[in-house]
């Protein structure tokens, strides 16, 4: 009886030691990832690859979409305890995150904000106020566009209508007197009479 109890005790100690060892082994990896300067950018890229909007992942992460947007755009730090919830919500793993961070690190500076363009002063900007183009660009984010530069097919654009309305869309084509544009959320193709469109400008930068 004593031998059996000792064996059971040893087995329990071994199991507990393995659990603690595993936790101690992976904890530094998670900590390094959540402290990486590329974390926010990598997380946003993964979400966009997964085709998930902030509205979709809001319940799973347990905070408002505005809070998640601040994390992604680095106006607030990404809480370490929310990283696993975020990854689960977009169907990605820690390995996916590590790979994305590594790719961003190897590519060197990958910031695509205004400072990345020497001619930024010549760009105009428009704030997105709805979810019509989510997750390509989220509500509250900005697009910077070059006036007079026409987009190619499937590129982002700002469409200036004759009545003064500005639309952020993906450019498709022009045919039979119509301009065809792609809306992402919900996915649909919109068409406008060419006579109602004053100009179409290519988006050069998007984000905060």
UniProtKB/TrEMBL annotation:
GO terms for molecular function: DNA binding. Coiled coil: none annotated. It comes from Asticcacaulis biprosthecium C19. The lineage of its organism: Bacteria, Pseudomonadati, Pseudomonadota, Alphaproteobacteria, Caulobacterales. Gene3D superfamilies: lambda repressor-like DNA-binding domains, Umud Fragment, subunit A. InterPro entries: Cro/C1-type_HTH, Lambda_DNA-bd_dom_sf, LexA/Signal_pep-like_sf. It comes from the Bacteria. Residues 43-97 form the HTH cro/C1-type domain. This is Helix-turn-helix family protein. Pfam families: HTH_3.
